[in-house]
């Protein structure tokens, strides 16, 4: 997929991938790839800076944990992140529904 099409949606993808389950960066990348059937194969250079931005903004919290024998920073949604996800999800669903109404053949 053209990476330009994902601009502005990375936060939503990250927040949604962490809904209900904490994760470290590489696990998030794998989960996005899995959920999208390989369409969203995002680079670490995209994911890690976005995770840090979301943490600084208060949408995510993180702590260090041992995962698979390795020390990893594990991210979880904060209450503010849950609200951001709900709002972004509503906006996306309204937008994608309107787009579908226009581009789908009737």
Note the total helix count: 5
Mean pLDDT equals 92
Which series of helices and strands comes N to C?
Answer: HHEHHEEH
Strand segment count: 3
Q: State the distance separating the first and last CA atoms.
A: 26 Å
For the biggest β-sheet, the strand order reads 1-3-2
Shape: globular
**Helix share, percent:** 55-70%
Main β-sheet description: 3 strands, antiparallel
Q: Please compute the radius of gyration using only Cα atoms.
A: 15 Å
Q: Give the low-confidence spans.
A: none
Decide which structural class fits the backbone: alpha+beta
Strand portion: 15-25%
Short description:
With 106 residues, this protein is an alpha+beta fold. The chain has helices at residues 3-6, 10-17, 25-35, 44-56, 79-103, and strands at 23-24, 60-67, 70-77.
Report on the structure:
By secondary structure, this protein is an alpha+beta fold. It is 58% helix and 17% strand. The protein has a 3-stranded antiparallel beta sheet. The radius of gyration is 15 Å and the shape is globular. The mean pLDDT is 92.
What are its keywords?
alpha+beta, three-stranded antiparallel sheet, 3 strands
Topology:
Layout: H1 3-6, H2 10-17, E1 23-24, H3 25-35, H4 44-56, E2 60-67, E3 70-77, H5 79-103
Antiparallel strand pairs: 1-3, 2-3
């Amino acid at each position: 997929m053209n990476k330009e099409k994902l601009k502005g949606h990375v936060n939503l993808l990250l927040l949604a991938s962490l809904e209900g389950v904490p994760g470290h960066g590489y696990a998030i990348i794998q989960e996005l790839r899995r959920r999208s059937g390989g369409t969203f194969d995002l680079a670490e250079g995209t994911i890690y800076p976005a995770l840090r931005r979301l943490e600084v903004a208060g949408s995510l919290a993180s702590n260090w944990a041992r995962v698979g024998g390795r020390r990893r920073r594990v991210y979880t949604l904060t209450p503010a992140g849950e609200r951001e996800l709900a709002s972004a999800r509503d906006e996306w669903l309204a937008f994608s529904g309107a787009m579908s109404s226009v581009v789908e053949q009737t």
